[in-house]
Design a protein that fits this description.
By secondary structure, the chain is an alpha/beta fold. It has two domains: 175 residues, Spore Coat Polysaccharide Biosynthesis Protein SpsA, Chain A; 167 residues, no CATH class. Helix content is 54%, strand content 13%. The chain is built from 13 helices and seven strands. Strand 1, helix 1 and strand 2 form a beta-alpha-beta unit. Helix 6 packs antiparallel against helix 10 and helix 10 crosses helix 13.
Length: 360
């Protein structure tokens, strides 16, 4: 049931908050997209752009559109995404907040559709990200890799264990203003955990929002290292509290804990399974000698890629042939998972925690 919009007591119904850091290539597209949301939805929208000072001309480009498109532009010293969001919260108007990233391209009726998904039992609704382009192998692989998580989150949503993924989500403003943002590498996961501990519910919708994916292997690896490191940081803080919390069902705790631990255990567990299966010699023919191990490795990688590719097709319904190609190429991506695992360990040892732009 769509919540009623108060047409008399306030100027805006929804504040659209967009964070940007070193996004000069996308900032014009993003602002024009946000403007369309303001024009084509029944809800009255206030657009807020929070630009961390970076090394490019993101703020200058955004500044040129400010008066023309009625955008509130906030420029701040670089302090991380949570800090940027805290600054944006000071300018919130209306009963709802829509969070977007600068690379998101929501459909023009996005605000009204998200409001229609929100009901009294929910504090927020989350859309599903899809790639704006899948012309490059890394983009397609990144989308398939992420679709597995989106598929699981959609299931967890029915167990009331859904999370907020940091963008393309609509929340009741009073809840977010009350809980606030804390300085974590995965500030969205940390906020989601506190919302769950407060017995709040988030729903995953079947509304898709195109967004840019990493276009290079280096960008993909850096992004996944950041996600895994952030998940470990949140788990260290909240995991024990989650399971000791009274009033939350075990099913809901398990659903959310599985998500919290997913970036931590997926890559190491996958590598361990591949290693063990490779040396089992389940696929073996006489005369192969040592070649039996590469054969086993390749076959098991392809077989284990099937669930990932199926989740991609289920969630997105995109090109089956391209998906099959990526599945066959999966054995060549497994070493990348090993690099991500090693990189996460190094990141934890070094204690590096900063918000950086995913190169696209």
């Amino acid at each position: 049931m769509c919540p009623s919009l108060d047409s008399t007591s306030q100027k805006f119904d929804v504040s659209i908050v967009v964070t940007a850091y070193n996004e000069e290539r996308l900032i014009e597209r993003s602002i024009l997209s946000s403007r369309r949301l303001k024009e084509y939805n029944n809800a009255r929208c206030k657009i807020i752009y929070i630009c961390d000072i970076g090394s490019d001309k993101t703020h200058e480009i955004a500044e040129s559109f400010r008066e023309q498109l009625d955008v509130l532009l906030i420029r701040k010293e670089r302090g991380g995404k949570a800090s940027a969001l805290r600054d944006a919260m000071k300018h919130i108007e209306g009963n709802y907040i829509l969070f977007l990233d600068a690379d998101c391209l929501p459909p023009i009726d996005f605000v009204d559709r998200m409001l229609a998904e929100l009901d009294d039992d929910l504090i927020g609704v989350q859309a599903i990200p899809v790639p704006t382009s899948s012309n490059r192998f890394v983009e397609t692989f990144a989308s398939i890799d992420e679709s597995w998580g989106c598929f699981l989150r959609y299931l967890w949503s029915h167990l009331e264990g859904a999370d907020f993924i940091g963008r393309s989500a609509l929340f009741k403003a009073d809840i977010i203003l009350d809980f606030g943002w804390k300085d974590y590498l995965s500030e969205d996961l940390e906020l989601s955990t506190r919302l769950i501990l407060g017995d709040n519910k988030i729903k995953y919708t079947n509304i898709f929002v195109p967004e840019d994916k990493p276009k290079s292997l280096k960008a993909f690896i850096k992004q996944r290292i950041r996600w895994a490191t952030g998940a470990i940081q949140v788990a260290k803080t909240h995991f024990k509290t989650l399971f000791s919390q009274v009033g939350i069902s075990r099913t809901r705790k398990l659903a959310y804990a599985t998500y919290m631990l997913f970036p931590i255990i997926f890559y190491p567990a996958f590598l361990l399974v591949i290693f063990l299966l490779t040396f089992e010699k389940l696929f073996s023919w006489p005369g192969l000698g040592l070649w039996v191990y590469p054969l086993n490795y390749f076959i098991w990688c392809v077989l284990l890629a099937v669930p990932l590719c199926c989740s991609w097709l289920y969630v997105y319904g995109l090109d089956k042939w391209k998906t099959a190609f990526v599945g066959l190429a999966f054995p060549f991506m497994v070493p990348v998972y090993a690099i991500i695992t090693i990189g996460t360990i190094i990141s934890l040892i070094q204690g590096k925690q900063e918000w950086y732009k995913t190169e696209r």
